[in-house]
Amino acid sequence: MKFGIFYEHQLPRPWKDGDELKLFQDALDQVELADKLGIDHAWEVEHHFLEEYSHSSAPEVFLAACSQRTKNIRLGHGIVLMPPGYNHPARVAERIATLDLVSNGRVEFGTGESSALLELGGYRVAVEKKREMWRETVEQCLNMMVMNPYPGFKGEFFEMPCRNIVPKPVQKPHPPVWVACSNRETIKLAARLGIGALTFAFVDPQEARQWVDDYYRILKEECVPIGHAVNANIAMVTGFSVHNDREEALRRGLDGFRFFGYALGHHYIFGEHKPGRTDIWKAFEAARDQMPANPGAGGMGTPDEMRAHLRKFAQAGVDQVAFIQQGGRNRHEHICEALELFGRDIMPEFKEHAVERQKKKAEELTPFIEQAFARKQKMRELADDEIPNVLALGRQISQQPQAPDPKAEEAARRFAEVSAVPLTDPLAKPAAE
């Protein structure tokens, strides 16, 4: 089984100058440490306007910084918001490919749609259409990474003409694709589309087994890949705080995990938010005594308790467990101590047979993946004579008939002056004497 660390970049109020700087610098240090310890993935969300819960609105910048301080850890977008109101799919393809290049092929491409009205409304993304937007744009974004040139597209939610999207990613045909899953139905959708399930439902290992069984059964029987490769993996998120003293582990990590859940509920389920004014931490403190003492906080305790927790996920067939170690007011030094203890005393047991397990799994799934691609209808490549020529703007202006409108002539002259483009056709033959 593989392991990841997961970041929302939480920052409870009250805020002081320098708090965001410390938050990001501490996170970079933690990712660098995780890489040295042999942890497999660092996941970074994309959220907008979700104060205190997530200050991670430009994940590609953070992950690019991580790429220059690490050597092996996989860099996961967990996730990119795909509706075009947030991100044009061509811009996503460009950013993912660039991150793959600067990281030397270590990107995991997580995708999703969001369910928070603060960000949906802020970018004017229609709630009732966001799933259809996600599906349309993910498929075309993956085509853009692979096709040379991309033939162009006119869909329900975006359109663009034929262009060659550059650069192309290191990983061929494209980085592994995931979708954020908060319920069992999205797990099933991930299987049908041949992409990884990045699961945020905080289910117990017994329920996780049911989700895993659903996923692999549907993948084998119904999958039609949305991309050009299948990423057959399930990752599940859990709390994280490890210490040799159980009470100390809970003291260091439980409040942060509870705030994580409370702030998530505030923005997604029950909250009322006044931008720039609502104090979620203050509301959390008022509600804390009424909250369950240990709300699904498996992954917190002694090394023995963590091993037992993780063994259940491994036995259920989960491929990766990602840890929420940065939540609420959890302290940087405590996070680092817990990561070091995990890497030294817990992780080796789960790494021992990882290569053998992955090989066996790949052999089992190969014929089913071949059948899945046989069901897929790929976007048609353009023949050379179908690829349109695009004339530069200066060329187009020079070839326009002489306009009798003096304003048009003046505009053309000004364009030529600022762009150094001659008004005559530079490819035209010299006029005869």
Describe the structure in your own words.
The chain has 433 residues and is α/β, with parallel strands linked by helices. The chain has 2 domains: 2-375, TIM Barrel (Alpha-Beta Barrel), CATH 3.20.20.30; 391-433, no CATH class. It is built from 15 helices and 12 strands. It starts with a strand and ends in a 14-residue tail after the last helix. The relative contact order is 0.12.
- The CATH architecture name of the largest domain reads Alpha-Beta Barrel
Sheet-strand content, in percent, reads 5-15%
Overall mean pLDDT? 92
- Uncertain residue segments: 421-433
* Global structural class: alpha/beta
Q: Give the end-to-end Cα distance, rounded to a whole number of Å.
A: 79 Å
Indicate the overall shape: globular
Please count the helical segments. Answer: 15
